[in-house]
Each structure stands twice: as structure tokens, then as C-alpha cells.
Write a structure and sequence with these properties.
single chain, alpha+beta, Alpha-Beta Plaits, Calcium-transporting ATPase, cytoplasmic transduction domain A, Rossmann fold, seven-stranded mixed beta sheet, six-stranded antiparallel beta sheet, 28 helices, 26 strands
Length: 752
Amino acid sequence: MASVKNINTLSLPVLGMSCAACAVSVESMISAQEGVTQAEVNYATQKVKVSYDPAVTGPAKFQKAVQSIGYDLITDTDTEKGNEKQAEAQAHHYKALKKRTIAAAILTIPVVVTGMFLMDLPYANYIMLILTAPVVFYFGKSFFVNAWKQAGYGKANMDTLVALSTGIAFIFSVFNTVYPEFWHSRGLHPHVYFEAAAVVIVFIMLGKLLEENAKSNTSGAIKKLIGLQPKMVLLITEKGEQEIPVADVQKGDKLLVRSGEKIPVDGTLYEGSSYVDESMLSGEPVAVLKEQGSKVFAGTINQKGSFRFVADKVGSETMLAQIIQMVQDAQGSKAPVQKLVDKVAGIFVPVVIFIAVCTLGVWTLAGGSHAFTQGLLAMVTVLVIACPCALGLATPTAIMVGIGKGAESGILIKDAEALELGYKVNAIVLDKTGTITAGKPVVTAIYWNKNLSDGKGSLEQIFAALEQSSEHPLAEAIYNELKAKGVTPVDISNFDSLTGMGVSGIHNGKKYIAGSHKAVKNQLRASGLQGEAKGLLEQAKVLQEQAQTVIYFADESEVLAVVAIADQVKDGSAAAVTELKKLGITVYMLTGDNEQTAAAVAKQAGIDHYQAEVLPSDKAAFIKKLQQAGKVVAMVGDGINDSQALAQADVSIAMGKGSDIAIDVAKITLISSDLRQVPKALQLSRLTVKTIRQNLFWAFIYNLIGIPIAAGVLYPFNGFLLNPMIAGAAMALSSVSVVSNSLRLKLAKLNS
């Protein structure tokens, strides 16, 4: 096996697959290539994901391997170009298939009318022979060509079933037309089945046509996401504005966006201001004000005014491009149940052929008069009705629609396994900061000493000056609060940072400090606190019991003010926890924060189980403990410290505004960072799995009922023998019904 260092992974479009067994054939051919460590073919997305050693093999060899069994690969390693070529090839294939289907149907209609109602017409059999031959061997030649190529490698697929059934029916009918005396001499009527052969070809082609159209609808979310990016952009040059394709934009380019236009790439605004609709990223309907220094993102819409910005991320690096790639990768990934279905599909065709041969044998031996003719008809019907298309489409179409539905709701699902496992989750672990809370400290209240001799106004200016000079994030929160009130900092001297405690400085010869209780205690005179200052300390204790962080502001003799700062619980967190409980899921909160803060946040969010002062490794150990107790655990986090726990969890969910590492590790990302999206994601999983089960049930029940009836199991009881034409129609309908059932997911409502 190749070294892990040398492994490349590519997703390449596959052309020419017509059923799940085709996907298995392509997968096995590529997997057999030297240097390939893994190959996965997804029939619904028509793509193969290959991990290989580039020093040993590559796309050209993969293409040659699949071409040998009748398929083809698009080997362009540029994903966007490869997808475009696949879309073009599929559009061309659809148009050609549509023309062939219409032409075949035009020839087949008179064959059916003659075979059903005008059998006594002179030369009726020869007329049907002439009309059926092009339907079977010209419009349906791909079935025979592909079946032959498959047979050369000891493989079989749906084309094998179609070629055998229609080929045998046609040859048998030609023999009966040209040499009817063979049967007359034996006292039997020479039946012909030209109409069956022609109609089976037409129905299968029609089924493929409907299937191709339906499958294209399942990738609608991708098309919508791709459509968010404009094609052209205005580049600012020394000579003026120049319109160029968005693909030509380079990092550092200066771009102009006018009112109503979509932003082409990610960047930083340097001139102008506007409100931008970022609902596709955040889910929030209110437009966001963008000023100098603000970040803007590809696909979002400029609403008012124009502005200029510098391109920071272009092409595949933009957030929109990463979202598109994530959805595409997820739609191409396989759910665990799909791997089982693929194995079934791989042995399905040989088993059906065996059943068909046995059907002919049993009829010939025990069928009485017309036994061989009826046995042959039953064999053809078995081969026709047993198409594995519905089985192959059952899982991937539901996965595709489910992931697309998630993308439209701001829930990015990286792979199918997460979507399939989501419905099993019965325990969920939530990080506190940035997940349940906003992750940004804000001032909730400032309590001033009422007996101030200098007046609050000048002291606010001194306080603002101290906090403006501090680098601590809590200091920033206080300065922003004072600044919002219109407070202007004064000049201070001898500024000093008291490591781990706070800051100090001198104004008009007097020393002031801001920081922790310890910092204030160390600086105050030994005479102690009296009156109002003592009351402020009592207020500080109350605030701490409410899990709020307290910052003190004092001079050399007394406490001047205490400030309450809190990382506030997000608006939707409590509602999300309530919804998770309704789903029967036990909710846990883990945090590195202290016990008081953890208890207060848990109470506000409605969480019954929590642990405080937890290290990153402790989070992963806690999840492992739950798993050992038989729980299926989901973890929701946003920071680097959550990455180990996310990797340990069965289903990992990252907040979209969290760290890149957390997002990379997680299998589901919530773009808006709204905790209410978590129950939506789990509901989506339940709906998707329900749809998969429905699809698999109908696919299996169809074959379990259809094959015995096609073989003639009802004939001894009521004389019923299924017509191959009806079998062809039923086969086509089964595939379309599975895809249609999957598309129903688009209409599902996700409750928040």
C-alpha cells in the first residue's frame, strides 16, 4: 500500500452509468488499479472519489480502465471545469436520449397496435420485425454494447438484463416468423413477441429519461449556490474601471461593487460604505453595515451605495466556494447503508440471471403444452422486471436531497455518515462559550460610588483612558461601553500593566487602578473601606453569584465603581435546548469556566447536566464515557479547544463563526452559529433516514413481489402470466417513484 504522505484524493465525474450495478463495476475496476487505496462511486451524483498514489497511477489510467467496460471518466482535475464538462455531457446525453426515446416510441406504437389488434393482417409478423429491429439494435444498441463489455470482465449490470431479455425475445420471434412450420408440425401456434421487445426498450429508455430529469432536480441546491456568484466584476486600475471575469480576479486586486450587485470574492472594504444582505451566510434577514475595514464575502448582496474593497480570497478560497465544495463532497459521499446496498447490487444481476434460467428450466420440464414458449416469455419477463435501478437510487437520492435541504437552511453537512447517524443521537454535548453564549463579553451594568466628590464625568474619562490602553478583552468591552455613551478619554501618565490583575495610571498627580479585586485590594490604603465603597463590594458579590465577571475601578483610597461583564446567553439557546429535549435527547454542557458561571448559564439555557472547569482532553473523555454507556453522542463546539471532542463524537457540529480547526474537524457546520439549527439538523437526519427506509422498502418489495410473479408463480392458480411490456413499465415506474419520494424531502418543514 502507498505511503499516506503520497496519497492524493480526487472526485471525478463518471459518464455512462445506468444502474447501481454499473457503479459497482466502475468502483471495482478503479479499485483494482495498482496504487489506488480507495475508490467510491456514487450513482446519484455520477462521480467517483479516488484516493491514490500519484507516483504509481493517475486519472488517465482510471479512464482507460473504465472505458474498457463501456463507461468514461472526465479526468479534468479542476473541479469547477470537471463539473462544467459533466453538466455539458449530461445535458447532451439527455437531449440525445430524448430524441432516441421519441424515435423509438414512434416505431413501437404501430408494433404494439399490430401485435395486440391486427395479428391477422397479411405479413403482420414481417411488418413488426422490420419496425422492431431498429428499436432493439439501433436505438437500444447501447444495452448490447455495454453488456458485451461487462461480460468480457465477468461482470453484469442492468444492461445485461435488458440485452438478454429483449435479445432473446427478438430472436425467438424472428425464428417463429421465418420458420413457423417448426411449431405447426408439433401442433403449436408460433407466438411472436416483437411488441414486448420494443416496448421494454422504450419503457426503459423513458424511465432513464425521467430518472435523469429527476436526478438533476436533486442537485438544485448546488446550482443555487453556484448562481450566487457573479460572472463579471469591475476591476479598479490606474486607467479606470475595467470589467473582467470573476475567474481572473487575483488577491490584492481592488474591486468596485455598485448598489444591487453581488459581491464577487471575499475581501476588505477600504472606501465607501453600504448595507450588505448576508442572509445566505448568517440566516439573518437584517442587512449589515459595512464600513472601512469591514469584511465582505462572495455571494452576498450589496443593497445601498457603492464601495471599493481589496480581494483577500479568490476562487476556491472564498467562503462561498468552500460551502459549494463542502455540499458537493457531502452529496458524493456514501452513507453506511449505501455500502451494503452496493454489495447487494453487485450480486443482484447474476442472481436474477440464475433465477431467469431456472424459470425457463422449470417451465420446460413441468409446463405442459406451450411450455417452452411460456417459459421463454417468463424468463424474459424476469430479466426485465428485476432492474436494480430503484435499489441503487434509494439511498443516494435521499442523501442528495437531504444535504441540499440542509444547505438551503444554513446547515452544511460534510458527509452522508453524519446525516445518517444524526437520527440515532440520544445525547448532545454543548460547549458554553461561543455555542450557548455569544462568546463576546459585554458590559451589563456599571455601579458608581454615590459619594464621589469629583463627579462621575471626569472619572469616566479617566476610566476610559485606562481601559483604552489595556489589551485585555474585558477592557475592550468596558471602553466600548463608555465610548458608546460619548465619554472621551483623558491623558494619563505612568501607565502600568499589572500582570494578571489589571492596569494603573496617574492623572493630575493621582493614581487610579482598574482590574480584579486583588489588584484593588493591593493598592488601597490600610485604613479600609467605609460607607458607599463597602456597599459596592457587597454589590460585587451579588454580581459574582449571578456568574458575571466584576471589574473594579478605584483610586488610592476607595472603590469608585464596579462593572458587571457577562458573556450573554444567545437568544435562541434556551429554545434550542427545549427542542432537543422534545426530541428525547439528553443535553450536557461542558465548560472550562468556573462553577458559578457554569451553573448560571446552565440555568438560563435550561440545561440540567453540566460540568465546569473542564480541560479540552476532559471533554473528549466525557464523550467517550457516554459512548461506552451506549449513547450516540453529538458534540457542538466552536473553538480549537473543542476539536478533540468533536473528533471523538459520533456526530460533530461546528458553529460557522468558530475556529477553522473546529469547522474542519466537524461533519456538520451551522453557518449562522444559531443553536436552534442543531435540532433542525437532527430533524433533517430523521426525515432523510425515514425517506431512505421508505425507498429501500419499496425497492426490495418491488423485486420480492415482481420476480416471482414474472416467473409465473400465479399461473397454476389463476392462469396469470405477466406480460414483458407491463414488466418494463413497472421497472421504469419503480425508479421514478423512488426518486420522486426522495424529492418530497424538499417540501419538508424543519421546526426550530
